[in-house]
């Protein structure tokens, strides 16, 4: 019997719940385009309860103040998985938001804490031409995915990394190795280490008004 030519095709359905913050003066019918921040939470906020996403980081910030001049998208990672396994879903979500809202595609920023810090490095490395700047907090890159050497794809993306020197959950070296590798290939990177902070280096980082000014100073 001769071999037959066949084609197999499948479509993967992805689903992410997310929080959407729009500035008070956002108006979809005007010509103004808005900068966007994609925020990735930590491992403890996974699941199907979006209130968990508001416990820490940027989703907590915008829940109590409405003066940040950004569209903020805060997805929730499903239980039992990790952000670096959901890069396709995150990319699809970002595509959907950009198509539906008045987003300035030259000013899309990415940040995340702990598991979201890892996700920030990984998603940015997957799409280095998409983000105007990134801010990974107490994260790193997974060795089996070729990090930290692979981080050189981000040499033209401004990076501001944060970490607590006393972090018992994600070692300081996880961020330091990424920063060192990026600097070695000529990357534009800042590194803030809080000497007395443990794993929670994100509270001080996201309370730093300079972070948002720094984001806005960069565009693609």
In short:
27% of the residues lie in helices and 20% in strands.
Model description:
The protein is an alpha/beta fold. The longest helix has 14 residues, at 87-100. Strands 1-3-2-4-5-6-7 form a 7-stranded mixed β-sheet, with helices on both faces. The radius of gyration is 18 Å and the shape is globular. The mean pLDDT is 94. The chain is built from 6 helices and 7 strands, in the order ββαβαβαββαβαα. It has one domain: Alpha/Beta hydrolase fold, catalytic domain (Rossmann fold).
Mind telling me which CATH architecture this is? 3-Layer(aba) Sandwich
Reading off the top of the CATH hierarchy, the class is best stated as Alpha Beta
SS elements, strand count: 7
Biggest sheet architecture:
7 strands, mixed
What is the third-level CATH name, the topology?
Rossmann fold
**Helical proportion?**
25-40%
Supply Rg: 18 Å
**Terminus-to-terminus distance:** 57 Å
Class of secondary structure makeup: alpha/beta
Present the secondary structure layout.
Elements: E1 18-21, E2 34-40, H1 57-64, E3 71-75, H2 87-100, E4 103-113, H3 115-126, E5 133-137, E6 159-164, H4 172-184, E7 189-194, H5 202-206, H6 209-216
Parallel strand pairs: 2-3, 2-4, 4-5, 5-6, 6-7
Antiparallel strand pairs: 1-3
